[in-house]
UniProtKB/TrEMBL annotation:
<dbReference type="InterPro" id="IPR002182">
    <property type="entry name" value="NB-ARC"/>
</dbReference>
<dbReference type="InterPro" id="IPR032675">
    <property type="entry name" value="LRR_dom_sf"/>
</dbReference>
<comment type="similarity">
    <text>Belongs to the disease resistance NB-LRR family.</text>
</comment>
<keyword id="KW-0547">Nucleotide-binding</keyword>
<feature type="domain" description="NB-ARC">
    <location>
        <begin position="181"/>
        <end position="325"/>
    </location>
</feature>
<dbReference type="GO" id="GO:0042742">
    <property type="term" value="P:defense response to bacterium"/>
</dbReference>
<protein>
    <submittedName>
        <fullName>Uncharacterized protein</fullName>
    </submittedName>
</protein>
<dbReference type="Pfam" id="PF23559">
    <property type="entry name" value="WHD_DRP"/>
</dbReference>
<feature type="domain" description="Disease resistance protein winged helix">
    <location>
        <begin position="439"/>
        <end position="509"/>
    </location>
</feature>
<dbReference type="GO" id="GO:0009626">
    <property type="term" value="P:plant-type hypersensitive response"/>
</dbReference>
<dbReference type="InterPro" id="IPR044974">
    <property type="entry name" value="Disease_R_plants"/>
</dbReference>
<dbReference type="InterPro" id="IPR042197">
    <property type="entry name" value="Apaf_helical"/>
</dbReference>
<dbReference type="Pfam" id="PF00931">
    <property type="entry name" value="NB-ARC"/>
</dbReference>
<dbReference type="Pfam" id="PF23598">
    <property type="entry name" value="LRR_14"/>
</dbReference>
<keyword id="KW-0677">Repeat</keyword>
<dbReference type="GO" id="GO:0043531">
    <property type="term" value="F:ADP binding"/>
</dbReference>
<dbReference type="InterPro" id="IPR055414">
    <property type="entry name" value="LRR_R13L4/SHOC2-like"/>
</dbReference>
């Protein structure tokens, strides 16, 4: 994986410089005729990279047109240079290796004859690149004005400040959140207690969602109740002297000019002295980083009971950090619902809702959907529509072209300024990661793992000591969520699995990507965003409404990333994409085998996603993709892999969801970290032995269906399989399906395991689990579980997630199993315990599972009522950190009809209702008042 950073601001300059210096190494010494030119290129491009990086940190409007045009030229040139170097390295792949033996020497000599022309061509290309770089530099010098253009035109009103002057009568949807904030600020006083410290409430949310407006409405209502009050805006690049002088002026009703400033320490002391022994109310609006708060907070006395502080921020970590300094809590501001969105929209365009034309109702709702409840977006788009005729045709045009309109209509400048503040606060690599999301269609659910892997193979993630590239990519993903620029969609045990991009943010990043020729978007009805002839990243977005073809004027030879979404897309020939690194056909059901016949020509390909397509087999040419790192074949009907697959020696992830027949030779694929669904009975003995040689393998699924006795159908002994698994000492996750009885024996699972899943009922607890001290997640199907098993499980120090599925045998005793503090479980966060056709037999005693947050259970209501004496008491009051309970009461039925079944059904329904009522009582009396989800289901057998 690339260690050098590719970015939207600097293009491929950094990896190009790295590769140029590599060409100066001893392994390429035979190219001495171009070494001086290579040194020149490296030196010039290093300087250009530093200049572009500095320029990219300036906010919108900070560049004159000549600078922006020069930046574009250098970026485009960097990609061209990298393509030439990559071609060069492919042609001279053998470098200066000396042949051994007579035959090898003859072959080497013949090969050198063929490469002489290549070397001459490479030399000419490098000379041409040198001329281009000189020309680009000279042209910038010729026309540069030396900064004589006035910067006064860049001065603009801070539109966030205007929010505090908005009259309450013009606001919508403000009453409920305003009441929530006031309640949070005053709840201690309402209880009759006297707070010892100021109460802090942090309002957090995306830019334009109404944080400032909400804070100001609360401020205006409450400030008269306090002896001192102040409302200050911090901004992205705060001047702490000005901020502290502003606080001082507002709380003292005196004006402090610059000459009276003193030091920051002096101002903090002065503010602190004035506020001491007084009840104060301070709003600190739009704070971006913890460092600013760490200075401001010292101005506020800690022992001022009854005082209030409101913080607003779009960064979640900042909001939480501000609260931790005092007694505080975080309020996540919600977007407007559709009713309030319509109300605001109609009020901005017409006098009242009654005046709204009925023929525009549907299209207006579609436009409001794009605004997604953001007040500032609704105001901006209503301003755009105010200058249009009130016809459905005009409004439809605005709906379709909102993203394009953002670039040129002054009505939406305010909204874009708000988003651009968040964008320009990002470091260069995060800007690039965010812009890459412009590839995805509106409202697309973007899988986190796939996104991070694409960032990595594109070269957006840089190396940092002590972390893997994926971990660094995950940090980038979390930072974008933290800054409210992307929205977490699905969570599994608190871990975000996917995200979506807010429509308004998507329009902004599409506009920026177009401006920097970062992504070219082609969508139905054949609209193209991005007009440059050289396309670097192409997104084809089709639907069922029309056939999508890429415009003829697009040059596809330079495309580095191709994504195809939706239906009715004409699949372009892969021969046209020589420099492709990412190819994503996910869920493109019209993709057939003939479309990927030439896949072997994509020699730079790193990422290939064929999941959910109509592909039935891979071509032999797949083995020519020497640089391929990720291959996704999930949700296809491919049944076997070609023999050439083992040539993919850099492949890290082979993603499949069904057992494929794999050829012998997997031992060559030493980079492989993830390969799931190995069906033991379908593979050769040699393959299984080679599987044990993959020292970097981290994730594996073994299917034993049809395997029993001492050997399988291919003569593979069970003991041999155990030996193979135990040899994979870097394995992090393993799942096992089929006949699992022998896993209760002393199978030496590697101690590196963090996740173990065993599908298929096992008679007793596996002896080997107690040694898995790094285990974080465990899933087991068992015939029974006793207190002795909970002692073993509770002793696993890192266990966070435990899922037990119990299928009791007929002779099992119906007794309670007590789980108490002595069993351990010191870090467990989620516990799921399911008995589909029997009673819930667990009882939690005092001290049980001290950090458990989520408890899930499935049980037979009738049998559980009998075992518990009718009170359905599981001891959940002893689970002190519980936040969520998910209960499913099932009724076990056999496939028959008659009065007996009807009676049993009515009995089960009554027992289920009593179980639900009992659980609701337990939740009401629990100190945490955890949320309860109660479902009634039927289990057939």
């Amino acid at each position: 994986m690339e260690g050098a950073l590719v970015s939207a601001a600097t293009g491929a300059l950094k990896p190009v410089v790295k590769k140029l210096f590599a060409l100066l190494g001893d392994e390429y010494k035979r190219f001495k005729e171009v070494r001086d030119q290579i040194r020149f290129l490296a030196s010039e491009l290093t300087t250009m990279h530093a200049f572009l990086l500095k320029m990219s940190e300036e906010e919108e409007g900070g560049h004159d047109p000549l600078d922006k045009e020069w930046m574009k030229e250098v970026r485009e040139l960097s990609y061209d240079v990298e393509e030439s170097i990559d071609d060069f390295m492919l042609h001279v792949d053998d470098k200066d290796a000396k042949p051994d033996g007579f035959i090898d020497k003859i072959k080497h000599s013949l090969g050198k004859l063929g490469k002489m022309k290549t070397r001459r061509r490479i030399g000419k290309e490098i000379e041409d690149l040198k001329k281009q770089i000189i020309e680009v530099g000279d042209r910038n010098a010729r026309y540069k004005t030396g900064g004589i253009i006035s910067k006064m035109s860049n001065l603009t009103i801070d539109h966030r400040a205007l929010a505090i002057f908005e009259h309450a009568s013009k606001l919508v949807g403000i009453a409920e959140p305003k009441a929530d904030i006031i309640k949070m600020l005053t709840e201690d006083e309402d209880c009759g207690s006297a707070p010892q410290h100021p109460k802090v409430v942090s309002i957090v949310g995306f830019g334009g969602i109404g944080k400032t407006t909400l804070a100001n409405q609360v401020y205006q209502e409450l400030k008269a109740q306090f002896q001192c009050s102040a409302f200050i805006s911090v901004s992205r690049t705060p001047d702490m002297m000005i901020i502290l002088r502003t606080i001082l002026s507002e709380i003292s009703n005196q004006r402090y000019v610059d000459t009276e400033a003193g030091s920051i320490q002096h101002l903090i002391s002065k503010v602190h002295d004035i506020l001491t022994d007084k009840r104060y109310f301070i709003v600190v609006d739009d704070i971006w980083n913890v460092a600013a708060w760490e200075i401001i907070k010292y101005a506020f006395p800690m022992m001022s009971g009854g005082s209030k502080i409101i913080i607003t921020s779009r960064v979640k970590d900042v909001a939480h950090s501000c609260c931790s300094s005092f007694s505080g809590c975080v309020y996540n501001i919600r977007p407007l619902d559709m009713v309030h969105s319509r109300q605001l929209f109609h009020r901005r365009l017409f006098k009242s809702g009654e005046d709204f034309p009925s023929h525009l109702k549907d299209v207006s709702d579609e436009i409001l959907k794009k605004c997604d409840g953001l007040p500032l977006a609704i105001i901006a788009i209503s301003g755009l529509l105010a200058n249009r005729e009130n016809t459905k045709h005009e409004w439809d045009q605005v709906k379709v072209s909102i993203g394009c309109a953002l670039e040129r209509n002054p009505s939406v400048e305010r909204m874009m300024k708000i988003i651009s503040l968040s964008y320009f606060d990002l470091p260069a690599h995060l800007k690039t990661c965010l812009l890459y999301l412009s590839i995805f269609p509106e409202d697309d659910i973007i899988r986190k793992k796939g996104l991070i892997r694409k960032w990595i193979v594109e070269g957006f993630i840089y190396n940092e000591g002590g972390y893997t590239l994926y971990e660094l990519g995950e940090k980038c993903f979390n930072e974008l969520v933290n800054r409210s620029l992307i929205e977490a969609v699905k969570t599994d045990d608190g871990v975000v699995k996917s995200c979506r991009v807010h429509d308004t943010v998507l329009d902004f990043i599409i506009s920026k990507s177009n401006e920097e020729n970062f992504v070219t978007l082609v969508s139905v009805p054949n609209t193209t965003i991005g007009t440059q002839s050289k396309v670097r990243r192409l997104s084809l977005q089709g639907d069922k409404g029309g056939n999508l073809c890429e415009p003829e004027n697009l040059v596809l030879y330079h495309v580095r990333s191709l994504h195809v979404f939706g239906h009715s897309v004409d699949i372009p020939s892969l021969k046209r994409f020589r420099h492709l690194r990412v190819l994503d056909f996910r869920d493109c059901d019209q993709l057939k085998n003939h479309h990927i016949e030439d896949i072997g020509s994509l020699l730079q390909l790193r990422y290939l996603d064929l999941s959910g397509t109509g592909i039935t087999e891979l071509p032999r040419g797949i083995g020519d993709l020497w640089f391929l790192e990720i291959l996704d074949l999930r949700h296809t009907i491919i049944s076997e892999l070609p023999a050439s697959i083992v040539n993919l020696e850099k492949l890290v992830h082979l993603l499949v969801d069904r057992a494929l027949e794999f050829p012998d030779g997997i031992a060559k694929m030493q980079a492989l970290e993830r390969y799931v669904n190995v069906h033991v009975s379908r593979q050769s003995t040699k393959f299984l032995q080679e599987l044990g040689q993959l020292k970097n393998l981290k994730k594996l699924h073994l299917e034993f269906k049809g395997v029993s006795g001492t050997t399988d159908g291919n003569g593979v002994a069970e003991e041999d399989v155990k030996a193979i698994v135990s040899s994979l000492q870097n394995l992090r996750a393993i799942s096992i399906g089929g006949n699992n009885s022998f896993w209760t024996e002393a199978c030496l699972l590697p101690t590196s395991l963090q996740k173990l899943s065993v599908f298929g009922t096992i008679p007793r607890f596996p002896d080997s689990v107690s040694s898995l001290v790094r285990l974080r997640s465990l899933f087991l199907w068992m015939e029974r579980v006793g207190e002795e098993d909970f002692y073993i499980l509770g002793g696993l120090p890192d266990l966070l997630k435990l899922l037990l599925r119990i299928r009791k045998c007929e002779d099992s005793r119906n007794t309670r199993v007590i789980v108490g503090g002595a069993h351990g479980f010191s870090g467990l966060r989620l516990f799921s315990y399911s008995i589909l056709d029997d009673e819930m037999d667990l009882m939690f005693a005092a001290g049980s599972m001290p950090k458990l947050e989520v408890f899930e259970t499935v049980f037979d209501a009738v049998k559980t009522e009998s075992l518990t004496g009718g009170d359905f008491n599981f001891g959940i009051e002893n689970l002190t950190c519980l936040t969520t309970i998910k209960c499913t009461a099932v009724h076990c039925r056999t496939i028959k009809t008659g009065d007996t079944t009807k009676v049993a059904t009515e009995r089960a329904k009554a027992a289920t209702e009593r179980a639900k009522a009992a659980m609701e009582r337990k939740v009401r009396t629990h100190p945490n008042h955890p949320s309860l989800s109660f479902i009634h289901g039927t289990y057939w057998r």
